[in-house]
Amino acid sequence: MITNLKEAGYDKDEVKEMIRKWGIRGTVSAVIVGVQIKNESVNEDSKRLIIRDINNLYYEMFYKDPDPRLLDVKISYTPVKIPKTTGGYRTLHIPNPELKEVQKSLIPFLLSLGQFHNSCIGFMPGKSVYHHAYIHKDAKMILKMDIKDFFDSVTDKMFLDGIINYYHSYGMVQKMIKYFIQLYGGNKKYEVISRDMDVMLKRLAEVLFLPGGKGVPQGSPSSPIVANICFFSIDKALYRLAKNFGAKYSRYADDMIFSFPHKDMNVLLRLKMVAQRIIYERSLHNLVVNAKKTRIMYPETKAIVCGVKIMPDGSFSLPRSYKKRFRAIVHNWKNKKISDSVMNGHIGYVKMVLKDKADEFLKKNGLTIDG
C-alpha cells in the first residue's frame, strides 16, 4: 500500500512547486490523478495518506508561526439569526475577533492531520460539489440522506475520541506535541503545560466547540473541518457498507449520497436501515438521520446532488431553479446591483458543471465569455 508521497513517485520539492503554481486544491487533484495513472490499484487509505502529506507540506510552507493565543484567548460568541430559504431561522454563533483569528490559524494544522476519508467532499482542498456529483454520475438509483442539525449535534467527545484513536493507529502523538511546543516553547508560563496532551487536547476542543462541548459554532471558520474530523469513522464505515452493497458513497457536509447501478429497492432499503444504525452508534448517539429530507431519486426523472443535476447519460446539467436564479443574477449584475466577483463566481460554477456546454448557456443568458 502507498503510504506517502515518496512511495507515490513524488518528491517534496516537486510538490512544493506544484503548490506554488496551482494552490493546494489543484495540487491534490493533480497528484491523485497522477498516482491513479501510475497505480490503478491505489486504495482509499493511500489517497488519504497522500493528501495528508500534501497538507503537511502546505502547512510547512505557509504556516510556520502558529497563533500563541490558544491558551489565553477569551471564548465568547454573538448569536445572530438568519432566515432559512425553507422557512424559519438558523442561529449563527459569531466568535469574537481574536477567537476567530485563533480558530482560523488552526485550520492548516487540522487539515495536515489527514484524518478525512476520501468520501468526505465538503470543505476539503481540491474537492467541490462537482466531485460529489461525479462519483454518482452512472447511477440508476440514488438515495439521499441528511443529518438532522449536523453542526449543532457533533460533540467534543466525538472529536477527541476520533483523534486519540487515530493518533494511536498512525503514530501522530509526536506531531501534536511538536505543534504545541512550537506554540509555547520557551514560554515559562506555558512550556510545561504544552507537553501535557490531555490538557492541550481539552483546550483545543474548548476553542473549537460551543461552550458545553456540543455543537461547533456556525459562523466559525474552523467548524466545517472540525465536523469532518468528527465524522471520520462514520465516513469510513458508510463507505465500506456501500461497497458491500455494490453501491457508491460520498458526503458533502450533512448531505450523504448512496448510488446504485440498479433499481433494486430491497437492496436500497436494507442499506438505508444499516446506515442509520451506523450513524447513530458511531456518533455516540448524537447524530440521527432527518427522515423528512430522505429522498430516493432517479436520473431519468429528477436526480439533484448538491445543486448539480445528474442526467440519464451521466452528464450534468443545472436545475431549473438555478437557471431562473442565474437570469436574475445576470440582470442585477448588468444593473450594477451585484459585484463582478459575485458574477464571476457564478460563471465559474456554471463552467464547472456544464463544461463544454457552458459557453452556449452563458451566451443564451446574455453573456459573452472570452478565453
List keywords for this structure.
371 residues, alpha+beta, four-stranded antiparallel sheet, three-stranded antiparallel sheet
Could you characterize what this model shows?
By secondary structure, the protein is of the alpha+beta class. Helices cover 50% and strands 11% of the residues. Helix 2 (44-62) packs across helix 3, helix 6 packs across helix 9 (223-230) and helix 13 (340-354) packs across helix 14 (358-364).
The major sheet is characterized as: 4 strands, antiparallel
Fraction of residues in β-strands: 5-15%
Give the end-to-end Cα distance, rounded to a whole number of Å: 42 Å
The strand count comes to 9
Q: Numbering strands along the chain, what is their spatial order in the largest sheet?
A: 4-5-3-6
Secondary-structure topology with pairs:
Layout: H1 12-38, H2 44-62, E1 77-83, E2 89-95, H3 97-112, H4 129-134, E3 141-146, H5 150-153, H6 156-170, H7 173-184, H8 197-208, H9 223-230, H10 232-244, E4 248-252, E5 255-260, H11 265-282, E6 295-297, E7 304-305, E8 308-310, E9 316-317, H12 320-334, H13 340-354, H14 358-364
Antiparallel strand pairs: 1-2, 3-5, 3-6, 4-5, 7-8, 8-9
Helix pairs in contact: 1-2, 2-3, 6-9, 10-11, 13-14
